[in-house]
Each structure stands twice: as structure tokens, then as C-alpha cells.
From TrEMBL:
It comes from the Eukaryota. One of its GO terms (cellular component) is plasma membrane. Keywords: Cell membrane, G-protein coupled receptor, Membrane, Olfaction, Receptor, Sensory transduction, Transducer, Transmembrane, Transmembrane helix. Residues 40-290 form the G-protein coupled receptors family 1 profile domain. It is a multi-pass membrane protein. This is Olfactory receptor. InterPro entries: GPCR_Rhodpsn, GPCR_Rhodpsn_7TM, Olfact_rcpt, Olfact_rcpt_6C-like. The keyword Transmembrane applies. One of its GO terms (molecular function) is olfactory receptor activity. The gene is LOC102178508. Its main location: membrane. The keyword Transmembrane applies. Putative odorant or sperm cell receptor. It comes from Capra hircus (Goat). It is found in: Cell membrane.
Length: 314
């Protein structure tokens, strides 16, 4: 599309290869996933806010996690859906591409920090139950959320600046459905090896750094659960952590595949699949992971539905 030029004002997203029929199937599938993601996470937020029995640190963090999931998937999925409906490639301005990448990385960083905080919360609940309300008080929880949001948005300023500070002169066609950093680096005619290495180290710092408290917390949790004499006690203790642990395995697995690799300019097919896991599958699974086996949340949701029904009848 564009060669021998050092100044690019817009990019073209190739999106998904295949026929129009395949694009229609993908659109229907991803639209369904996106709709369920929005509805499911909004239900979690509404239920936590309305029901007083869910006014605890675990559900407070869960509500903020749902907000992050909605925002993360909304950064790229609507653009992807619109691209599936359009014939040919989808144009996106340089500034829009920069904003999309910055929001995606910042929100993702904040989410990883929040996941780590949720693991520590579960550790305190299981291993120090008598001091739980003192340690995880409302002020502490509020500061944890604020720090995760602020740090996420501040931490990603330099990586995005370094990416768009490069000279793009090879082409302006991105072989992806959103402004993926790896594909942007492919278009640079500068020597980006040093930048890629720094970006790799920063990704390792965030992902592995948030994994450490998670791994330590769950090691202590499992050790404590195994020492509980009764089987019912062990099951009850584990049930409080099972949902978060499942989400941790899926979330960190996807992020490790997508970001922690020395060579950021990975094959487009690899990046597309990993990105779909992070942007579509994980946010879609979040409401089911945290609610289906949570009797307390299900009961609270039923009560909220009863209230709504009564208000509609009145």
C-alpha cells in the first residue's frame, strides 16, 4: 500500500483472511461473545453494587475486574466486528491506532495488578481469617484499586511512545484486526531490536511481577487447606479460591503467550489467536467462572431480579 515514505498518517487493518461467508460466521460468533461479555460483566457489577451481602473485598475487586474486562474487550472488539462487515481492508488513523494500543496495554496492566491483589485477598481470607476484616478494610481495598489503575496507565506511556516514535516506512498495512504492537514493529525501518528487548523486559516485569504474589499466595493457601482436618472444611476453603484460581491460569497463560517473547514481531497467525484469547475468550468466560458455582452470588442475583420484577409490576 505505501512504500518509500517515512511519514504515515493512517494504517490499514487486514483483519481475518477468508471469504465473505467466513467473515459473516466470525462476525456472528464474536458478536455473540461480545454481547454475553457485556451483559454478564454488567450483571456482576450491578449485583455487587445493589446487594449488601456482597459488600466484601472479594466482590469489590470482582466488580472492578468486570469493569476492566468490559473496557478491554471494548477497545478492540467493536473495531474488529466493523472490519468483518466491511469489504477489503479497514483504515485507522495514526492517532486512533496509538490511543487503541495505549488503552489496551494500560487496562491489561491494571487488570494483572488487580488479579495479583485478589490472590493476596484470598490468602488473607484463608490463612488469616481472624484478621481479615482488619487487613482488608475498605480503605485498603480502595487504595489497591486506585494504585492498580494509576500504575497501569502511567507504566504504559513509554512503551507506546517508543513504539510510535519509530519510523514506519515499509508499509502501512497491519496484518491484524487491531493495532498490535508486534505488527507495528514489523513496519518499522529502524533497528528496533533494543526497543523490543526493553518492551520484553517490561512485559516480564508486569506479568511475572504480578504472578509472584499470586503464586506465593496460592502456595500458602493450598498448604493451609491441606492441614484442615475435615473434608467439608477443605472443600469450603477451596471453593472460595477456585474461581479466581481458574481465571488466573487462563489469564496468565494467554498473556505469557502474547507478550512474554523476546521477538515481538511474531507471526501474524500466532498473534491473532493469542489476541482473541485475551480480548474475546477471557472476558467472555469471566462471568461464568466467578458466578456459576458461587451460591452466594446466585442468591444475590435472584434477589436483584425479584426487586426489578416488583418495580416493573408496580
Amino acid at each position: 500500500m505505501l512504500k518509500n515514505y517515512s511519514s504515515i498518517t493512517e494504517f490499514y487493518l487486514l483483519g481475518f483472511p477468508g471469504s465473505k461467508e467466513l467473515h459473516n460466521i466470525l462476525f456472528a460468533t464474536f458478536f455473540f461473545f461480545y454481547s454475553v461479555t457485556l451483559i454478564g460483566n454488567m450483571v456482576i457489577i450491578l449485583t455487587v453494587c445493589v446487594d449488601k451481602r456482597l459488600q466484601s473485598p472479594m466482590y469489590f475487586f470482582l466488580a472492578h475486574l468486570s469493569v476492566l474486562e468490559i473496557l478491554i474487550t471494548s477497545v478492540a472488539v467493536p473495531v474488529m466486528l466493523w472490519g468483518l462487515l466491511l469489504p477489503g481492508m479497514q483504515a485507522v488513523s495514526l492517532s486512533a491506532c496509538c490511543v487503541q494500543l495505549y488503552l489496551y496495554l494500560s487496562l491489561g496492566t491494571s487488570e494483572l495488578l488487580l488479579i495479583g491483589a485478589m490472590a493476596v485477598d484470598r490468602y488473607v481470607a484463608v490463612c488469616n481469617p481472624l484478621r481479615y476484616t482488619i487487613i482488608m478494610n475498605s480503605r485498603t481495598c480502595l487504595w489497591v484499586v486506585i494504585v492498580s489503575w494509576v500504575f497501569g496507565f502511567l507504566f504504559q506511556i513509554w512503551p507506546v511512545y517508543a513504539t510510535f516514535h519509530l519510523t514506519f516506512c515499509k508499509s502501512n498495512v497491519l496484518d491484524h484486526f487491531y493495532c498490535d504492537r508486534g505488527q507495528l514493529l514489523k513496519l518499522s525501518c529502524d533497528n528496533s531490536l533494543f526497543t523490543e528487548f526493553i518492551l520484553f523486559l517490561m512485559a516480564v516485569f508486569i506479568i511475572v511481577g504480578s504472578m509472584i504474589p499470586t503464586v506465593v499466595s496460592y502456595t500458602c493457601i493450598i498448604s493451609t487447606i491441606l492441614r484442615i482436618p475435615s473434608g467439608s472444611g477443605r472443600r469450603k476453603a477451596f471453593s472460595t479460591c477456585a474461581s479466581h484460581f481458574t481465571f488466573v491460569v487462563i489469564g496468565y497463560g494467554s498473556c505469557l503467550f502474547l507478550f512474554v517473547k523476546p521477538k515481538q514481531t511474531q507471526a501474524a497467525e500466532y498473534n491473532r489467536v493469542a489476541s482473541l484469547m485475551v480480548l474475546v475468550v477471557n472476558p467472555f468466560l469471566n462471568p461464568f467462572i466467578f458466578t456459576l458455582r458461587n451460591d452466594k452470588f446466585i442468591e444475590a442475583f435472584r434477589n436483584v431480579m425479584k426487586r426489578c420484577y416488583q418495580l416493573l409490576r408496580d
